[in-house]
Design goal:
Elements lengths: L1 E2 L12 E5 L10 H9 L1 H12 L5 H9 L7 H8 L8 H11 L3 E8 H8 L8 E8 L6 E3 L11 H7 L4 E6 L5 H6 L2 E4 L1 H10 L4 E2 L3 H12 L1
Parallel strand pairs: 1-4, 2-3, 2-6, 3-4, 6-7, 7-8
Antiparallel strand pairs: 4-5
Length: about 220
Amino acid sequence: MTDNKQKSLIPNDRQRVVFCDFDGTITVEETFVAMLKHFAPELSSQLMPEMYARRLSLRSGVRQLLESIPSERYGEIVEFSRGQLMRPGLVELLDFLDEQKVPFAIVSGGLRIMVEAVMGDLVHRAIALYAVDLDASGPCLQVNSEFEGDTELVSKVRVMGLHPAEEQVAIGDSLTDFNMALQASSVFARDRLAEYLDEQQKPYTKWDNFFDVLENLSQKWS
């Protein structure tokens, strides 16, 4: 598998690429949000409404939350992630994309350690994983993100630029996927992301699980 530090570019003649969020998209629940509320409850109650209302940037809010957590709790964060349920149909979608020779990239505004803890070996089915890394060497966690943007800890649009294609498909559910969805050729949106796109009058396909995505793409690409 290619990690974000290797920046493996997909050739320019690539027709299609799928970019998929993790928290609340691959996972049934918003794992990252639940973790922040668990480990930084008071600050989460203050900052999360501001981020959802887009009065506070994700880059600033998430960094403040993560860097308020003592490093000694790093192991607890990993354990908190284990056992989270994944949304049905992911394996079948990945099988379909393999058949179509369409790369699948995971682009998360959350933590790499959480993605790896939940997905296990399945994470190697992705061509790349882009997410936030943590440094636990100091008293409190420190955030490291190679693709930090103006408003995001992981600029998903910057990541998309590494994988040019005629059709860029985005799958997401919330605010961290908003800019990616605006940039994508086609979008599968649910929950908060659908509401944000409605406001922008950006077309999207509603979905509940990955079988819905598979069925739609299969019909579209047949």
